[in-house]
Write a structure and sequence with these properties.
three-stranded antiparallel beta sheet; mainly alpha; 10 helices; single chain
Length: about 240
């Protein structure tokens, strides 16, 4: 349930840790069972016999987030084809986007992890913070149901959803921008294989970055194969560019 509809705190709510109450305020959801949120911000490095970590919640949160975001972008763009929706969905639920939302509520300060683990993840946008954000969404869902999850995602992802509603550069242009931003030469495309009859040829193309990453795309015409290769390579580099 959204915290705006539950203004009074019970004894249990008042007894919950101060850090949890502060995080609830930033998330925008007051938990009936604050221990769900406590679990959501507990990294595997701090798991013990008395306390569960957030890995299972992360698994659930990934699915809940995808469902809610899918609902929202379909409502936002009722005439968009499935392919366009899929691109928007991936951009909104990938690790960098989850980490960006997590940073907006300063989630990194609330994540309970071993000191050595925190030291090794110097940047807030690490995989740990994105995973914790998904776990938080699962905690909201388990605590308040799908409506609570919808309200929370709408609040936290709203600006990102609005941004993806604007026309986006095609994958080849995006990959070139990604490479140039890191001082690399433009991506290099190679025709690896062509098969099928002349009236319906199928192309296999490879795209390579100066830094060594590669990906394969298959389609027709050749331009489509290159686009699919660029899209796959973008998926790979954006997942690791955190």
């Amino acid at each position: 349930m959204d915290m705006a509809t539950r203004p009074f705190l019970s004894r249990d709510q008042l007894n919950r840790p101060k850090a949890i109450r502060a995080l609830e305020d930033r998330i925008g959801h007051r938990f009936n069972d604050w221990r769900l949120l406590d679990q959501a911000v507990t990294h595997v490095s701090r798991r013990n016999t008395a306390k569960d970590d957030n890995e299972r919640l992360e698994f659930l949160g990934d699915r809940v987030l995808a469902l809610v975001i899918t609902e929202m972008i379909m409502e936002d763009s009722p005439k968009a084809p499935p392919g366009e929706l899929a691109v928007r969905l991936n951009a909104l639920v990938n690790r960098p986007s989850c980490a960006k939302v997590a940073e907006s509520i300063n989630l990194i300060e609330a994540v309970n992890m071993a000191r050595s683990t925190r030291k090794s993840h110097r940047r807030p946008g690490s995989t740990i913070i994105g995973n914790a954000m998904e776990a938080v969404i699962a905690a909201v869902f388990l605590d308040g149901g799908l409506d609570a999850a919808r309200t929370t995602v709408a609040r936290l992802w709203g600006s990102l959803i609005a941004a993806t509603s604007q026309p986006q550069p095609d994958p080849k242009s995006r990959l070139q921008i990604w490479a140039q931003a890191r001082g690399q030469q433009p991506p290099f495309y190679t025709l690896v294989h062509q098969e099928g009859p002349d009236h319906d040829p199928q192309f296999t193309c490879e795209v390579a970055l100066e830094s060594g990453e590669t990906a394969i795309g298959r389609g027709s015409p050749k331009q489509q194969a290159e686009i699919l290769a660029a899209e796959e390579l973008l998926r790979v580099v954006e997942q690791h560019d955190i």
